[in-house]
Amino acid sequence: MKETTAEELKERMDSGDDFTLLDVREPHEYYMADLEGTTRIPFDELNSRMDELNKKQEIIVLCRSGSSAGDAVELLTENGFVKSSRLKGGINEWAAKIDPSIPQY
């Protein structure tokens, strides 16, 4: 499974690359720690809401620690979203390496 590191994501965001950052956490988790510009589809709704995503666009999936994002990437890949990867370590890794103002939980 393809992974994107927090540093790679930061570089891509800063350079204005065109991709979808998909947050598959539960809605109550968005308020604990959030990244601006994400598309929010909780993992348990992903199967029924895939039509909201573009199969031709790269998708980087994030969750709290990377586990659910990995499951989401597998589901997306099985459904033709071949340009998908997970954020290694999730939003907690982002908080640790890029933005310490975001709480880890």
Note down, in words, how this protein is organized.
This protein has a single domain (3-97), classed as 3-Layer(aba) Sandwich (Oxidized Rhodanese, domain 1), CATH 3.40.250.10. Helix content is 39%, strand content 15%. The chain contains five helices and five strands. The chain has a five-stranded parallel sheet with strand order 1-5-4-2-3. The longest helix is centred in the C-terminal third of the chain and has 12 residues, at 67-78. The protein is globular, with a radius of gyration of 13 Å. The two termini are 25 Å apart. The mean pLDDT is 96.
The assigned CATH architecture is: 3-Layer(aba) Sandwich
Sketch the major β-sheet.
5 strands, parallel
- For the biggest β-sheet, the strand order reads 1-5-4-2-3
Number of strands: 5
The tally of structural domains comes to 1
Note the beta-strand portion.
Answer: 15-25%
- Morphology call: globular
Instruction: Provide mean pLDDT, rounded.
Output: 96
Computed CA radius of gyration, to the nearest angstrom: 13 Å
Which regions contain 5 or more consecutive residues with pLDDT less than 50? none
User: Could you give the order of the helices and strands?
Assistant: EHEHEHEHEH
Helix content: 25-40%
Please name the CATH topology: Oxidized Rhodanese, domain 1
- For the record, the CATH class is Alpha Beta
